Amino acid sequence: MPSKRVLKGLNAVASPPTRAVVTVGVFDGVHIAHQRLIRSTIQLAQRLDGTSVAITFDPDPQIVLDPAHAQPALMPLEVRVATLQALGLDWVWILPFTTRFARMTAEQFIRRILVHRLRATALVIGEAFVFGKNRRGDMDVLRRLGPWYGIRVVPVRQVRRLGAPVSSSRIRRLIGLGELAQARGLLGRPPALYGVVVPGTGRGRRLGFPTANIRLIPQVVPLRGVYAVTVRLAPPPIRGRGTRTAAATPLASGELIGGGVMNLGVRPTFGPGPMICEVHLLGFAGTLLGRSVSLSLLARLRDERCFPSWQALSQQVRRDIARARRLFARLPRLLRS
Predict the structure, then answer these.
(1) pTM of the entire structure?
(2) Please, what's the b/e burial string for 113-123 (b: 16 or more CB within 10 A of its CB; e: otherwise)?
(3) How far apart are CA 223 and CA 245, in angstroms?
(4) Structural domain spans, the chain
(5) Which of 40, 68, 139, 200 maximizes the CB count within 10 A of its CB?
(6) CATH T-level topology, domain 191-336
């Protein structure tokens, strides 16, 4: 059985895997269309007694090619990689996307990456996938060049929901509009926010509801308001280059901390301030300071409001917590999301 590996860098592959079956993409969000690609890759690799490989890029090519129009990520690299692994891939190879890399033509990518580095047996790819310099590589190019290089090209049909293709861009729009249920349907899991727990002002504790204050990474954020969430420890950043063996778990440090109530906003009751993200964890008495966390957005409880006093705010927070508890009690599977 192939070992589970994460490789980072153009020269990270010291020796090619056995009968590599490869798929390629940014895979931001690892949504249900990505999951179909990954499952198809794994199934073919298993039939061939080979190695399933996903190639992804860091940063997102759009950041390099068109930074003015680059969209925020749905998840950080380390979560993307851990989620890909959780689907059962043998290898995840992270290629640095640079201006020099962007000048590589479609045929050069096939020859240098798929043939010379991986000795790929098959390439599993979405029908609309394009690659290489000026996006000149497409399915027609692959069908022409694949057999020449001994690579079987396996197209995978688009996944459509509600009359439109599933895409990361569409999911970003839904999250930004607060359409969490639709975003969840396209992702195959709740949308999430990611960040690091940092010291706060202690205002929540003084109100009787201690909170973990989260410094969010740059990402898609939903509408300001109060949310029922589940909190997990997130995997550490992927640093440096080279190869490491990694277990195929949903998150490298994916321990479920529990359910909570999250406020995303500017705390207008206390006057003008910056956008903050804070979470009151239900039944948790430890500390998460300095830890990376993921916050799965299960339901939007209400808009952010300005209250006439801290006492009125405290009463509302109690109602928010009670509502979240009823939600978790009625749908306990949410606590595993």
Answers:
(1) 0.90
(2) bbbebbbbbbb
(3) 39
(4) 5-161, 191-336
(5) 40
(6) Elongation Factor Tu (Ef-tu); domain 3 (2.40.30)
Domains 5-161 and 191-336 share a fold: no
Structure tokens belonging to residue 279 = 């979470």
Q: What is the mean pLDDT of residues 20-45?
A: 97
| Type and span of the H or E element at 197 | strand 192-198
**Cα 220 from chain centroid (whole Å):** 11
b/e burial code for range 70-89 (CB count within 10 A of at least 16 → b): eeebbbbbbbbbbbbbbbbb
Q: Apex CA 229: angle with CA 225 and CA 232, to 5°?
A: 135
Residue 252 pLDDT: 42
- 50-89 pLDDT, tens digit each: 999 999 999 999 999 999 988 999 999 999 999 999 999 9
Tokens of 235: 């995997």
Q: How confident is the model at residue 336 (pLDDT cuts 50, 70, 90)?
A: low
Tell me the CATH number for domain 5-161: 3.40.50.620
Distance between CA 98 and CA 101 in Å, rounded? 5
Q: Cα separation of 22 and 20, whole Å? A: 6
